[in-house]
Design a protein that fits this description.
Structural class of chain B: alpha+beta
Radius of gyration of chain A: 27 Å
CATH superfamily of the domain at 50-254 and 292-337 in chain A: Cytochrome Bc1 Complex, Chain C
Structural class of chain A: mainly alpha
CATH class of the domain at 50-254 and 292-337 in chain A: Mainly Alpha
Oligomer: heterodimer
Order of helices and strands of chain A: HHHEHHHHHHHHHHEHHH
CATH topology of the domain at 50-254 and 292-337 in chain A: Cytochrome Bc1 Complex, Chain C
Strand order of the largest sheet of chain A: 1-2
Order of helices and strands of chain B: HHEEEEEEEEEE
CATH class of the largest domain in chain B: Mainly Beta
Largest interface: A-B, 29 and 22 residues
CATH superfamily of the largest domain in chain B: Rieske [2Fe-2S] iron-sulphur domain
Number of domains of chain B: 2
CATH architecture of the largest domain in chain B: 3-layer Sandwich
Strand content of chain A: under 5%
Largest sheet of chain B: 6 strands, antiparallel
Shape of chain B: elongated
Strand content of chain B: 25-35%
Radius of gyration of chain B: 30 Å
Distance between the termini of chain B: 75 Å
Largest sheet of chain A: 2 strands, antiparallel
Chain lengths: 372, 160
Amino acid sequence: MEYSAMRQLLRNTKGLFRNFRESMIRHGRPTTDRARTQTVVQNFFLHVHSARVNKHSLKWTTTVGMGIMTTALFLILVVTGILLMLYYKPSVLTAYDSMKDIHFVVPTGRIMRNVHRWAAHGMVALVILHMARVFYTSAYKPPREFNWVMGIMLLVITFALSFTGYLLPWDQLAFWAITIGSSIAGSPQDLTDALGITQYFNPGGFIKEGLLGAHFVGEEALIRFYTLHVIILPIVLSAILGLHFWRIRKDGGLARPASADPPAPDDAAIENFDLMAVIYERTPATDQEVENTVPSWPRVFRLEIILTLAVLFVLVGLSLCFDAPLAEQANPDVPENPAKAPWYFLGCQELVSDWAFGGGWSSLGLSCWACF
Amino acid sequence: MSKQETKARPEKPVKRRDFLGLAGLWTFFGTVVAILIGMFKLPMPSVFPEADSRFPIGKPEEFIVGEAKSLPSRRLWVFSDENGIAAMSTVCPHLGCIVKREEDGIYTCPCHGSTFDAIGKVLGGPSPRGLIWVEISLGPDGRLVVDSKVEVTSQTRFTA
């Protein structure tokens, strides 16, 4: 009795890992197409994917994988951002010092901040390139048109995230860029001033005061930008991102040219025949793959992993070579010369050099309208 | 109202049950809208965290006649001559940067390159208007008081 109980314990201990794995994942490695399909459909983390995918969509040249890379960048930004939150203190007195701490004192703080900064630049770039790809492959056309609209929302939120994140280091660059940016946000007041209706209807002042909580960039502005940057905008972005993925499937799966799909049955070609005979054979359509498609497992997931690793590799490489900039501490009395917006706002900056409202708001409005 | 108009829109009597249901639904929507209005009122400040726009800059005799004095923390240049004392804001009317006085007496904005002459008139660049001159008055304690929110015509001088 004693002996057998001991043996049972040993056997259980030996099988512990296997038992744990089998209780967590209730199947082995999928070897048949049917099992692969079921894996994708039944797994919580995989079921956002479709079970099968068109071969053409997997070709490197169809999408360049930029949507996946953008998503990877967003995930990296979330992870590094949360880590930075542990040390960053959103207050005028401490923000800049905590940035210095992160850079010089916090273990791995420097590389985390560098990765966060370069990933932010990369995300803006890849969102724009992803949009260009969708445009040039006609993937915005019906039935995918609403996903294009959601893509524009994601673009705007990405810009908003980069704009709010720009203030947080509280260095000279941040302070003056946001001073200028918030003046642009308040520039509809120029128009209402010109029309003489500012005291009745003042959208410029409303936006600026709502954004800054004051008439200048200070403590209130910093805490508002921080809240927007770490909570509000990421939640909104995640929600729309989820819808964006869901719509890919609802709108017909990953992008591919129309020629990649089997031709739709032509109704006119169907003629009526009388039943001549019944043949007891296998019906021709069974056990056949849907034309031109393969199971998502493992190809799609392999691609996702490769692209994520590639993005991570590039980011870490960049972060080891180049530090994210940190200018002197913000000084409201001495403007930074020259006060430069990040590269993706440079066009906007050149335009506002002529006319704040025209260059800032009109260009944003026009480009959104053009995208719609 | 003629009879024909009433005919054109046949009235469907709302059943009592439907009425209660609809009333409940609209009450719900009304509540949500009221809550949202309340929520979005919160970020709009009713009191702004800022220093008083009126502040003393010193006794008139502290400003030597014929000299210009910079008050960087107040964002002002104060000019004094035989006609009186005047104050000009150094905030660029374009997008809020601080202009810098060059050696030849003109002011340049480092952000977008606006330039202003010695009395703040636009010489070039994107600024839609010249630098703003602000009101100077005499406070009860004999010190000069500037109100940075009250704009006056260019070069308006305070005379005791």
